[in-house]
Structure to design on (844 residues):
DNA sequence: TATGAATGAGTCTTCATTCAT
DNA sequence: AATGAATGAAGACTCATTCAT
């Protein structure tokens, strides 16, 4: 029916509005009317760009991961010592969250959980438009190259890099999640230091004494 | 109002049904009618035991964490070398999930995310009956004693145990989450080994050679 | 099925409770559970005495008018000058209301309106168990004898006593109704005086001067 | 929330439908679905114009009294001898009811009682949006000017006009109420005559003989 | 006889979606 | 292309009534 959307900027505005609404109110409780309002357009117009609420969420889903992938990729791309990179990733995660939670859109981060939850469910039910697990593995693999690099260089232990990156990202994700709600009770700098202490040393090949 | 009826078994049945329904369909989409049906009772009867959908969820919330706390506490209680305990906790988590996901109630685990999400949101909005972050810290603290123990014994690095336990549990949680959806792509045994390798060595005090 | 009620006192207690509940909450909003509670019995027991909510209301209806008829009849029965009787009736109505509204059951009087309304409706729909209009005419007729008496004695104008009593009671009813809600703004004694002044003089045969 | 849609005609249709439904079925028993159906619109549309059932009733309430006030005001406004006015008011009330009850919407009048009852209750509970007693006094005061006029002119007895108008309207209201259900048993003309006979003569200053 | 736990029919209300303008 | 009024399917919750104890 609808041939194709037109105004790409408006489409973006809808997605941005949807992120905030879904994050704040949840997927079920987030209303199309609210999204339209926040996007500054009429309720009916939303349906010129997306054929259903579900499709809006799919777009949010895609957008969210694209941004995430872009963020990490950029971070990782710079030529750098693998140890430094890991440190960078952890520092970045903590600081990114701190900055995110500071401003008025702090809650936007909840969209991550919402996506996670819905992604899980859709995958389980086999109705996911995108394979959630595939998207996740795509992200894990961002980290894989520099783990490989570190192993190759003999700095990291010769572990299976696929599994290592899985653990790294999963752990990082969990820490972000918990930091999100508990950051008032913990010290950013201490967490950074200890996190790196544990993960880095866990990864590092023990120094042959005498070396 | 309702001075709570007596049939405690029926109450449990409702909670059990609610876990499955909320996990499968989400908090908003899970219908009271479905819960009643799964519990084998009439729709109205649910309201003899809980005054609202929200209250059912609160009961699920409480029940879930009590079980979780009970599970870990039991695991940790046995007198044992701190290093072994950490190994045990990680092994337990992987195996527990494997077992959980095996049977027909595999999806029940999603209730965890649902609780997480709702807990976050309620806390943000200041309407949480229970402080979600407090409950979480309660769980972190299950692990704290044996981290303390390990530090005391000079086996672990002398890090701040409060922050260490936070990181440990948060990481474990993230790993569980991701393992949940991706376990088909990763090897249980390999993950166990590598996880312990990283975390344990990260925690362990480097052996002074010659000592 | 149910052969016949047994404990007459309990039946009365139920009706008394029902009056208060229906008056306070309305016929639709008044709950059987509340009635049972106020009557100090179990919810199921109510159904041993009345087969339905509607039947309880019918009993309240009957009870209410019986009491009303008894009250006015007693007042009217005493041998007395017809003019004095009218004065008595009006005084009685104001004072009765004042006294009624004083105590904690002040709102009970609302049952009157509830009955009125329901009586109207049932009569319209032809489902009234008792003919509401018949009951009302029964009450008008309590007043008829002394209007007749007054006319006979040549004190009142020779008007049709049936229509006069209708007007008298209907007016009295309206005045009670309005006094009920507005008594704070009007002076009891002034109202009494003026009411009698208007109605009595309206009824009284003009004194032939020179008499 | 709803910035009230524009179709004022539709709003009126809903109110008109609501009057009939509430009058026929009562406030609690009158269903939104029925109102919508009678208004010829969809169930959901009702909520575009009113945010709740209660608000519909409030609108009916306001509408009803506005009409009543308008009716009496118009009647009273014409320059005329105060005695004639009272006669007019009483005649008007009887005839108005006769005409009202003639057509198919005869029952609509029951809404008056419904409003009365609800107004009472709300006022008692202190939840009335409009003060019911205030609205009533507003109506009493429509009559006050011509009572004053009559007293001033020396035609009426020098009674307190505030209390007189209260009694007049209250009595008139009661008479209307009872006439509503009992008009089949009484003669319109006779009632008119006798009513005026009683009230007018009750009010009129006795003619000084010799004058 | 008395009870209250169980029940499901019934109702308000919400909101994604449609469609006439 | 944009809009928002109209819609009805869907769902939480209430409560009169039943019935096993």
């Amino acid at each position: 029916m609808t041939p194709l959307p037109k105004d790409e900027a408006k489409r973006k505005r809808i997605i941005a509005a949807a992120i905030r609404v879904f994050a704040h109110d949840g997927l079920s409780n987030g209303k199309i009317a609210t999204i339209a309002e926040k996007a500054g357009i009429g309720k009916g117009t939303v349906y010129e760009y997306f054929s259903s609420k579900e499709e809006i969420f799919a777009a949010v889903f895609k957008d969210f991961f694209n941004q995430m992938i872009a963020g990490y990729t950029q971070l990782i791309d710079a030529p750098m010592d693998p140890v430094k990179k890991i440190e960078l990733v952890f520092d970045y995660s903590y600081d990114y969250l701190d900055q995110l939670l500071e401003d008025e859109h702090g809650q936007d981060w909840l969209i991550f959980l919402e996506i996670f939850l819905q992604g899980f469910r859709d995958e389980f039910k086999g109705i996911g438009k995108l394979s959630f697990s595939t998207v996740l593995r795509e992200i894990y693999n961002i980290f894989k190259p520099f783990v490989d690099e570190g192993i190759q260089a003999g700095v990291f232990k010769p572990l299976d890099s696929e599994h290592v990156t899985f653990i790294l990202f999963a752990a990082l994700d969990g820490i972000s999640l918990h930091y999100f709600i508990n950051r008032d009770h913990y010290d950013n700098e201490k967490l950074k230091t200890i996190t790196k202490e544990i993960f880095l040393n866990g990864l590092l090949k023990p120094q042959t004494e005498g070396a």
In short: Chain B has a mean pLDDT of 86. Residues 53-77 of chain B form the longest helix (25 residues).
